[in-house]
Structures are given as C-alpha cells and as structure tokens.
Amino acid sequence: QVQLVESGGGLVQAGDSLRLACAASGRTFSSYNTGWFRQAPGKEREFVAGISWSGGMTYYGDSVKGRFTISRDDAKNTVYLQMNSLKPEDTAVYYCAADIRGSPWMDLRQGGFRSWGQGTQVTVSS
Questions:
Q1: Most buried of the four, 39, 46, 72, 89, by CB within 10 Å?
Q2: pLDDT tens digit sequence for 40-51
Q3: DSSP 85-117
C-alpha cells in the first residue's frame, strides 16, 4: 500500500502563497492518480485538485481554478499543490490522496481515492 505524508501547511495572510507537498512511500506515483482535498470545520470534504498518473491531465475545483496548481515529480515520488492568492475561505485541513490508475475521475473527485494522508493544516488570516 502507498503511504502518504503531507507537509507545507501553516499560517499565512490573505493574498500570500503556500506550497504543499505529499510524499509517497511504497508504490511509486508513476502508476497512481493523485489529488488534493480539503475540509474546513463543519463543512464537507471538498475536491481541490487532481492529476493523472501520466501527469497529462489536471483537474481543479471551481473555487481554486486560476489560483492553485497541482504538479508531480515522480523522481521524488511527490505531488505538490501550489496555492496562490490565498483567501480566508481556503482555511482547512488539506489531504492528499492516491489511487491506482483506472478508476473514473468522476468517482475520484467525489472522494473515491483508496489511499489518504493524515492532512496538513492551512490557515489564512484576513
């Protein structure tokens, strides 16, 4: 099983940038679809971004389009989430996820990933 560990969260001000990283051990990301989700207190878990196993396709939630960028570095077995122009409503625990290629992205976007990290807190102040 692939093990995922997120890092890079912290406290920033509105308008700042932050870069999250998700390092995998076990199975390489080269054969996995990966993504980022977030969950704020009292709210449902929300799809943020996803990237295909090949790196050729990316997907974004409507609330982060144009501000966040997902990427991956298979040599480092790591997926990244570059977050720019952060807003207070971006405050949440951010989770990375991975799943072997083949699952429909519609299912993955809804939380169908089978491997999850523990999460990293991102707090954006006004």
A1: 72
A2: 999 999 999 999
A3: S--GGG-EEEEEEEEETTS-HHHIIIII-SEE-
